[in-house]
Amino acid sequence: MARRNEHTQEELKEMIIAAAEQIVIEQGFSALTARKIAAKVNYTVGSIYMVFTNMDDLITQLKANVLDAITEEMNQLRHVPPAQYLEEMAKTYLQFSSQNFNRWSMIFEHRLPDGNPVPEWYQYKVEEAFQRVEAQFKSLTPSCSDIQIQRAARAIWGGIHGICALSLSNRLNSLDVYDIEGNMVLLVRNFVIGWINSADR
Amino acid sequence: MARRNEHTQEELKEMIIAAAEQIVIEQGFSALTARKIAAKVNYTVGSIYMVFTNMDDLITQLKANVLDAITEEMNQLRHVPPAQYLEEMAKTYLQFSSQNFNRWSMIFEHRLPDGNPVPEWYQYKVEEAFQRVEAQFKSLTPSCSDIQIQRAARAIWGGIHGICALSLSNRLNSLDVYDIEGNMVLLVRNFVIGWINSADR
DNA sequence: ACCTGAACACCGTTCAAGT
DNA sequence: ACCTGAACACCGTTCAAGT
Prior knowledge:
Two copies of one chain form a homodimer. Chain A has 201 residues and is an all-alpha fold. Chain A folds into two domains: 1-52, Orthogonal Bundle (Arc Repressor Mutant, subunit A), CATH 1.10.10; 64-199, Tetracycline Repressor, domain 2. Chain A is 74% helix and 0% strand. In chain A, α5 packs parallel to α8 and α7 (120-140) crosses α8 (146-169). The model of chain A has no long low-confidence stretch (mean pLDDT 93).
């Protein structure tokens, strides 16, 4: 034992991530433990700490992968006018979060301890998502200042996320995804109508 | 030892809840443990299970208390026209969630295990919050059907919640509460404008 | 009837020791 | 250099035993 050299550190890292993702998908974030991961990849618990500084580090990687998966879905969207594009984004986000509920909710169920700030590269991924929304508002109302555009993007993306969060957490509430999609579209459409018609921006 | 009879079961329950709330406020939800609570109320861990079926039960009580606190804040709101009332609700929710961040985020960081459904009395408290929003839309557009009103309420309340959730979790992002409040108002105001002007409801 | 204390089956994290 | 195994300081939950 010790020094098996069966896998490179990089391979081990990927194996651990894959095993962890499987556990989250099947049993939810709260069921994710270092020992379960180790058993799944056939190493001892200690090995995890060769390639991750701690569980929070590992979980941050998992969360980043989910952000990437969402971005990937958004990249599939076809090119349509901005108002419609925003609706498509909202529907895509809803679809992703309902179809990948355990991975998606991990993003919000996990919080780094107070000392550890969210790493910059992770923040950057979040920013990227916002920029896609900002681009739509920029083409919708080109005369608006950057700050106005930013506000609109944050308001509507917050709104889109919030409908997902409330609807899916209370999802026993006899609301199916189709109904939620209606709320999604309602919010986006009315906000956009208001945004275009309003002098108050 | 054993059989101290210093407190009634009801008193013990309240002491435990109070101690748990203090821990959440000071150290966050993830730092809440049965043993810490027991130490704070000067009983042994086992005693908690005399008055709560398990930690999830206790946490559900804590979450309910937070919902009550939010409702309490909403009850302080003065009587104003519906469009303005919705904005006031949004601002109140933001203020509460930023001033009571650890208690508020507990509501969304904690999830009952898959077998345990959310208790009815808890669901009811959530419904109550929605009804207050529905009432505003009812007086804003009295001719709308109940289902339209419900959709509007869920859309806008989801939106309000989502802006809080995204803004406060990424709150290092150099956005202060005043900026977020601006996004809040922007969302509500534009949605309401859109809602009133739109034939598409 | 109330409460304890100890046990059980778990955690995350560290690190001396082996190859 | 890589990996283990065991330890440490924790968890939630149960329950026989004491008063």
